[in-house]
Structure formats: C-alpha cells, structure tokens
Design goal:
mainly alpha, 8 helices, elongated
C-alpha cells in the first residue's frame, strides 16, 4: 500500500506540473526529447520499470493465484510498453498511463490489511471458544476479538467499495480514452509511417495497450463477482 501510494504521489507531482499534461493533443503535439531526458521524468521511468520487473519475480515466487497468467501477461506487457515508449519518445502518454494505473491499488491493499486482521480475529475467537474459558478475562478478550473483527471487516468492505469505484473510473473510463488518443489522435500529429522502425514501435505500443485494457475489463468482472457476493451473502 505504501509503495503504490508513494509511486502515485511521485508521478502526480512530476506529470501534473508538465506543460503537456492536458489537453490530450499535447501528448503528441511538438514532441521533443525533453520529457524523456529530464532527470525527474527519466528517474521515474526507471523506477517504474524496476518495480514491474520486481513484481514479475514476486509473482513467480508467490503461491499460484487464479489470475497468475493474466498478472504475468500484464506485467510483461507493462515492461515492454515502458521500454518501447522510452525508445521511441512516447513518454508523455506513458506518464499519463502510470498516473492512472496506481491509485486503485492503494485502497485495495489497505482493504486487504483490514481483511487479514478480521480473519485473524476470527481464528483467535475460535481458539478461545474451543478452550471454553468462562472467566471474566476470557470473556472480555472474546468480546474484544469480536469487536475488532467486525470493525476491520466493515473497513475492508468500505475500502473495497472505494477500490471498485476508483478502478472503474481510472482504468475503464480514463484509461480507454488514453488508448483511443494513442490509436487515433496520435496520428494527427505524429507521422508514424515516416520510417519502418517507428511504425513497428507505434503498432507494438497499440497492441500492448489493448492487451492491458482487456485485462482491466477481465479484472473488473472478477471485482463485480466479489461485490455481488458481499452484497447478497
């Protein structure tokens, strides 16, 4: 949670102050190498790709999750996107994408922290009940475990709702617009066909952007399933 929050605040500070931040045609108009070679922007690009390389390793070391393949596909796509965008100077839109992808993960991971505490209190409560302690101290400890567990579960549910809304706005509303701008608006200002290398780089980025978008839609489907389960059960 701290890592995602730190990255989001850092990119917000760097990108939002750039003269090309908005409107979107500024991402492509009069592109120069200044945004790629400035120290803060280059440093953030390096940090971001390093983080995703580390996450590829961590996904391989963790126990297998249901979406392990999708997660690896997402991380590899992100690493290639960063590399290609840096090589061909599409770093402005790269910074915008980085700004959009991190915010939702902050409430998600804080919600997980509350959920883990709530689950731990349930385990503690079951142990106390199995021990059948009837003294006052045991009863107070049991009541405390129940209270803490309920509060943490409530906070986990609230933060999951915040995560779901944030995910939908940033990744399924704003991010698709970035994909649209990269696919269509870009070609109004950048002659991607002026040489074969640039054309290959451009279409490689477009394909990877759509892969990431498809993954966001798939994950939101899983999120909705969890939300429906929480509401109905």
């Amino acid at each position: 949670a701290m890592i995602y929050l730190s990255f989001f605040l850092l990119v917000l500070r760097i990108v939002k102050t750039q003269p090309w931040f908005w409107p979107s045609f500024n991402w492509w108009k009069n592109q120069t190498s200044d945004s790629r070679t400035s120290a803060d922007f280059r440093g953030y690009y390096l940090l971001y790709v390093a983080r995703y390389v580390a996450e590829i390793i961590s996904v391989g070391l963790e126990y297998d999750r249901k979406d392990k393949r999708e997660m690896l596909l997402h991380h590899f796509s992100t690493v290639f996107l960063i590399g290609i965008s840096y090589a061909y100077g599409f770093t402005r839109v790269g910074g915008i994408i980085m700004l959009l992808l991190d915010p939702a993960d902050v409430p998600l991971h804080v919600a997980k922290l509350f959920k883990y505490v709530a689950d731990a209190r349930k385990i503690e409560l079951n142990k106390k009940r199995s021990g059948r302690s009837n003294n006052n101290r045991g009863a107070m400890a049991t009541q405390r475990a129940i209270t803490v567990g309920k509060r943490c579960q409530f906070m986990a549910d609230v933060l999951f709702g915040v995560f779901m809304v944030t995910f939908f706005i940033t990744r399924l509303v704003m991010y698709p617009y970035v994909v649209y701008s990269s696919h269509f608006e870009c070609r109004k200002f950048v002659n991607v066909e002026r040489n074969l290398a640039l054309l290959i780089g451009y279409w490689s980025c477009i394909v990877l952007l759509y892969i990431v978008l498809a993954l966001q839609a798939y994950w939101f489907y899983l999120i909705l399933k969890v939300a429906i389960k929480v509401v109905t059960k």
